[in-house]
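User: Predict structure, ligand adenosine-5'-diphosphate.
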Amino acid sequence: MRMILVGPPGAGKGTQAARLLSTYEIPHISTGDMLRAAKKAGTEMGKKAAAFMDAGNLVPDEVVIGLVIDRIAEADCEEGFMLDGFPRTRPQAEALDTALTAAGVSLDVVLLIEVPDELIVERITGRRSDPATGTIYHLKFNPPPAALASKVVQRADDTEKACVARLKKYHSETAPIVPFYESKGLVRRVNGNAAPDVVTDRIKDVLSRN
Ligand code: ADP
Ligand code: ADP
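Assistant: Predicted complex:
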């Protein structure tokens, strides 16, 4: 299965991807995770991306497109992949389309997780993760276990200011990819405003009918 997870920051893309991996045994490719790893490792790409990310801006298309096209050409993606956070612009969606067509394959589904804007800031500012495993928690909605409470970390861009900037970018740059995929009949919408278990069931239901 070749699928894309789309949704505003904080919609639950990463949370749901982790839950779906036991059912769909395909690589989870998160451009946010890849860029944060490059930033942490201090690579040229990471240095270039850091300022964009911390301000809540998008990293330039030419940086991200190359990263993803190389990754999905790897052997473990032959049977499929779950893209999380890519494409985020119309040129990214078109570049992905060109690469997949050249490889003689196509997307199966674009899963759109919908969450109202009013809920996003609270989700983002309360987000924490376990630096050892990457597991995502939320101070209020999914608190880390007591043993991890002092170890979880907050992302540099999970401030209210950067979150508001990201949400704006989502509406201006990313939302336009939805009609692009709708014209291909690939979009499936899921209401992400419910407990994580409920959202997982909704997604599995939608995918089983695909
Ligand atoms: P969130 O989980 O809040 O939606 P991500 O972890 O997906 O955020 O991305 C964090 C940041 O990494 C983005 O704000 C952006 O700066 C950069 N980024 C991630 N994916 C892309 C992409 N496809 N295009 C451009 N920038 C990206
Ligand atoms: P995204 O990858 O779309 O940016 P995350 O999966 O990182 O979103 O979730 C953002 C924050 O919201 C995290 O702190 C996560 O624990 C929390 N969260 C995820 N799904 C839900 C949900 N269904 N209800 C409440 N909080 C959630």
